[in-house]
Give the backbone structure.
Amino acid sequence: MAAAALRGLGYTGRLVLVGREAHHPYERPPLSKAVLRDAATEEATAIHPPAFYAEQDIDLIRGIQAVELDRARRQVRLADGTALPYERCLLATGGDARELPALPRGTPGTHYIRTLDDARALRKSLRGGARVIVIGGGFLGLEVASTAMDSGATVTIVESADRLLPNALPAPFSAWLAARATAAGATLRLGARITSVMTAAEGSPPSGLILDDGEHLTADYIVVAIGLRPDVTLASAAGLEIDERNGGIRVDARCRTSDPYILAIGDCASQHRDCLGSHARLESWQNANEQARMAAATLLDADPPPAPYPWFWTDQFGCNIQMLGMPAQDLSYLCRGEAEPAAEAPKLIWLGHRNGVPVHGVAVNAAGDLRQMRPLFERGIRVDPAGFAGAATLKPWIKTCQQAAAPF
Amino acid sequence: MKWIKIASTDALENDEVIAVEAEGKQLALYRSDDEFFASDNVCTHAYALLSDGYLEDGCIECPLHQARFDIRTGKVLCAPAASDIRVYPVKVEDGNVLADISG
């Protein structure tokens, strides 16, 4: 995205894009959804058509890892020994799936999911009514569980927290989502600690897990989805400032690291956010795209694009769930809509507000409504919460709120 | 050209988009600055109806993943969609919106 944005802004100089994966750059959101179901969708994950790179004069180096960032000489050394000099270097190194020490990557019968190759491998395992344990009830784990069940697998989700997504969702919605997953046929073990991994015989693939309450869970396959470890290997070895709290490369609002010649974006970057008053690492598709645009503008001394309002989506258990804004401890939440977890197509919105000002919205199959409400969030317009829950349709209510805030 | 009626002009207000079906095709009909435009209704990225989307400044934003298209040209304006959406010629006659969806 950043390479395309640089060309889009008129940069005509040399542009080298280095990626350690052999594939052309691709979108990751479909890996836990469509790609896991159907090989035919792989092609549609390409960020650009393969011909794009030559057309745009982007020198794409695939399948070779960058192994050293030499700030003194301003060059990047690749695994094959090539040294690439730079005027400016943009780090978009993303991250790796966090590993569970008891089930490291490469353990037979165990899957991690971060790359296209990971998704391909898991897709093969999902055939034929497999019994699957998903370790981790985060967004990725829930999406994988949902897709696996679509493919006919029997799924148990093991999550160490007492509720789903405690840092992203209000408690009542966590409970709703758990009920939704259960109604769809998933078995959920919340607040569960894994005591040990079972194997049928020494050296054979894991056959299940034992939880701390003594429960034995058996499985044909185990998927580990316990989060992301930002890949800051290059940056860290080169002495760039790393955010201790989240492990990301510290950047300012314009994506500049502590080295004026180096920028960082995406999952690996911890960026200063005015709306939070602090640095944060946001693992989202929107954030990766917006930071790419921001970095391109910074590199070319162009005007920065407007700061986007945080937005995130997940597709699981027959629901498109969208989130606008960021959760916070001190918000009051209320809900409008059809909230029966087992309904075929539930449609609801949870609105988190601070003294009537919308700060966090969670919409289930109601993205259109949430999108219409975005100006209220962006402009910090105080609203009438009772009206939100009670209005027959949202559009007139949104208009009334806007007019009350800015009378003509 | 083969014009067929797809809606009456009072079926939607300004800055509104509705779903219409014509000859088995799912279309999105837009009214923007009192002009009418029509496109395929299913987003080119994933299965979602643009008629449930957000219409602003001559652009339709898909409700599912916020890809945007220019309703005049069908041109895709931002990811995650990568392909343009097909648009159809539209004209207004006697309070009816006509579209040419042949070819």
